[in-house]
Amino acid sequence: MSETRRRRTPRADAPASPAISLLSDDDLYLFNEGSHVGLAQHLGAHPLTAGGVGGTYFAVWAPNAAAVSVVGDFNGWAGDGAALRPRGRSGIWEGFVPGVGAGALYKYRITGRHRGYTVEKADPFAFRAEAPPRTGSVVWDLDYDWGDGGWMASRGAANSLAAPIAIYELHAGSWRRQMAEGMRSLGYRELAVELADYVASMGFTHVEFLPLMEHPFFGSWGYQTTGYFAPTSRYGTPQDLMYLIDRLHQRGIGVILDWVPSHFPTDEHGLGYFDGTHLYEHADRRQGFHPDWKSFIFNYGRPEVRSFLLSNALFWLDAYHADGLRVDAVASMLYLDYSRKAGEWVPNRHGGRENLDAIAFLRRLNEEVYRARPDVQTYAEESTAWPMVSRPTYVGGLGFGAKWDMGWMHDTLRYMSREPVHRRFHQNELTFRSLYAFNENFVLPLSHDEVVHGKRSLLDKMPGDAWQKHANLRLLFGYMYGQAGKKLLFMGDELAQDTEWHHDESVAWHLRDMPLARGVQVCVRDLNRLYASLPALHELDCDAAGFEWVDASDAEHSIISFLRHARAPAAQASGATIGDDTAASAARAGGRATAGERDASAHAASPRARRAPDVLVVCNFTPVPRHGYRVGVPAAGIWRERLNTDAEEYGGSGQGNFGGIEAQPAPAHGRPYSLALTVPPLAAIFLEAPPGTVAAGG
Q1: CB of 85 within 8 A of CB of 95?
Q2: Given this model, what pLDDT does residue 50 score?
Q3: CA end-to-end span of the chain, whole Å?
């Protein structure tokens, strides 16, 4: 920290003329109004040359300060260093300090109006921070020569809800550690090579990083953010992170960043009590302090705070070419009584529990994101039944692109943890999702939260002996990839890791040498490839037309079967005449295109003569193989067995249907044909319909 550094003899640094400014009157107006979305270009520290003199322009919001100065290694961390001047009534202090360039360390020394209050704060808009445990800001620029032009020009198709989206979630600091160097975390540039190769080989379409914004406590995994505009320096420079994202893009892999607008830590150098008043947070602890995380809550009703957060979201999409933001803890933002007892929260102006300011902010956030970048997605981690989270704002929704299906995750893991002999009594845990599966655009997450804090690894949740545990895990993944919804797996799950994740430990890569674990990894790879290659498994992930139960009621055998459908040809598709700019025009109108609108638009541009074949998915949740198990299908011909999680190469018993089976003219399940299947033990099988066939009523 700055106060522990050796102090040098200070020198006088007169502030520059007020004429040297990166803030126009319009910027000030929009900032104070809560509408500015590009503050990163105006506030913070910006190296520049003015009047032939090199230096750095500083600007910080501290409306209740009596004085603000910049202290750093360039003036011996002297409290009377480079004084800033207030810019009218905007609350912003600014000034140009000659001789200060990129790499200089600094903080703002803020003197409050209350006697005796002086504090050194990191720059809320700093592009780079010192590596923890140091807490200073670093003057830096974001120049970088990007090489992902091809990806950026066409990424809208890869990020579309009609595309296969299989997300690999990871914590950068513990994905792979350098054991020869004391278990050191890999840097951004090291990750760029190894992660891109691995994710591409495994068939994932996107990676999602747990928060990479600077955070003082490594054990918070990034969810206690202090440097909202600065990637953590633990792994390198901002340009190093850009290189990582660039490399992933060049391999055709999208990048989603975890983003935390729900709360921030109380560390003294951070945003809390910034100018001697509750500036970013509510003053009332019932509104401004989170009881679960012991952190501050943003005051979403304050216009300047809205400008700060909106600018931050757009910053990561623009400066770092991110393809999406996963917004953390949305439920905690929506409800005033979240994790609070009666009397511990303040009702809204109507007497209700809804946080009206947060709702308005989230809607504005999504409108601004999709207006500026209609080719990205926003994902809500929202754990309640709040309606229309992923529906356009113009119909009353929150405007997110997609929402995590936490209900599916909890129900499915509860079911899979049961002994197979008991599963027949809990079939509803598999089928309940049908009641709401298409109310939102869902992602099916098996995330980091499910393999920490005593919850055990996914493999360890599975019942049975070692073989059965691995078979159950392959079945879980097969069931997930068959279900409607985008997919998300946390690092290590694909390796059948048998221990919980810990941020100080690497993924258990040695498991690749274990036959059963290696089989799970190969199975996940093939599921990703199958999901991407068969349109029926992804095109209508977010549309009820893409899913049809065959039999959800065979609880006695603990077997379920369902069909997945691809989109109809463009000429038959409802709304196929929607123009290619549907998403952009909807965003400009104050919302965003629905999944159906965007899908129809994309499909109209590239029609197929006939719909892609249906896919039949059959899952057996018991260790008892079923022979001659009859399942109704809509079409005659040979149904190809495209994937069987019980295959020997995955560590299974090798039972199956010899690559395909012919439908018989024996009606079943209300369909004119049926298959007499071998359904392997603890397994999911995927069968593709004969080309050119169309499901009845499809």
Answers
A1: yes
A2: 87
A3: 65
Q: Residue 57 corresponds to which tokens in the numbers above?
A: 């322009």
Are the CB atoms for 147 and 250 separated by under 8 Å? yes
Distance CA 478, CA 686 (A): 9
Burial letters for 392-411: b for 16+ Cβ neighbours within 10 Å, e otherwise?
Answer: bbeeebbbbbbbbbbbbbeb
| 640 three-class SS | strand
pLDDT value, residue 695? 52
Splitting the chain (698 residues) into consecutive groups of 10 residues, what average pLDDT does each group show? 35 50 96 98 96 95 96 90 93 96 97 88 98 97 98 98 98 88 88 97 98 96 96 98 98 98 96 96 94 95 98 98 98 96 94 97 98 98 96 97 97 98 97 97 97 96 98 98 98 97 94 97 98 98 98 98 92 36 41 41 48 96 98 97 98 96 97 98 98 59
Report the C-alpha gap between 382 and 232 in whole angstroms.
26
Tokens 């992923």 belong to: 390
What pLDDT score was predicted for residue 594? 38
Report the DSSP beta bridge partners of residue 121: 108
Q: Between the CA atoms of 482, 485, 489 and 490, what dihedral angle is there, to the nearest 10 degrees? A: -160
User: What number of H helices and E strands is found in the chain?
Assistant: 16, 32
Q: Are 497 and 457 in contact (CB under 8 A)?
A: yes
Q: What is the phi/psi pair of residue 286, to 5°?
A: -70, -20
DSSP string covering 111-167? EESSTT-EEEE--TT-SEEPPTT---EE----------HHHHHHHHHHHSTTS--EE
Question: 410, 416 in Cβ contact below 8 A?
Answer: no
| CATH 2.60.40.1180 in the chain, residue ranges | 544-688
Could you tell me if residue 6 is left (phi over 0), alpha (psi between -120 and 50 degrees) or otherwise beta? beta
Q: What is the DSSP letter of 545?
A: G
Between 1.10.150.120, 3.30.479.10, 2.60.40.1180, 1.10.357.10, what CATH number should domain 544-688 receive? 2.60.40.1180
Contacts of 472 (CB under 8 A, 6+ apart): 416, 462, 463, 464, 682
Would you say 265 and 224 are in contact if contact means Cβ atoms under 8 Å apart?
yes
User: CA-CA-CA-CA torsion for 347, 348, 349, 352, nearest 10 degrees?
Assistant: -70
Give span(s): CATH 2.60.40.10, the chain: 2-138
CATH topology of domain 2-138: Immunoglobulin-like (2.60.40)
Q: Tell me, rounded to whole angstroms, the distance of Cα 39 from its chain centroid.
A: 23
Residue 548 phi, psi (nearest 5)? -150, 120
Compute the half-sphere exposure of residue 550: CA atoms within 13 Å on the CB side of its CA.
Answer: 26
564 DSSP β-pair partners: 547, 615
| CA geometry: angle 480, 485, 490, nearest 5 deg | 55
Strand-pair partners of 290: 295
Q: How far apart are alpha carbons 679 and 656 in whole angstroms?
A: 7
Q: What are the CA-CA distances from residue 510 to residues 183, 498, 515 (Å)?
A: 15, 12, 11
What's the whole-model pTM score?
Answer: 0.92
Give pLDDT, residue 610: 78
Residues identified as active-site: 328, 381
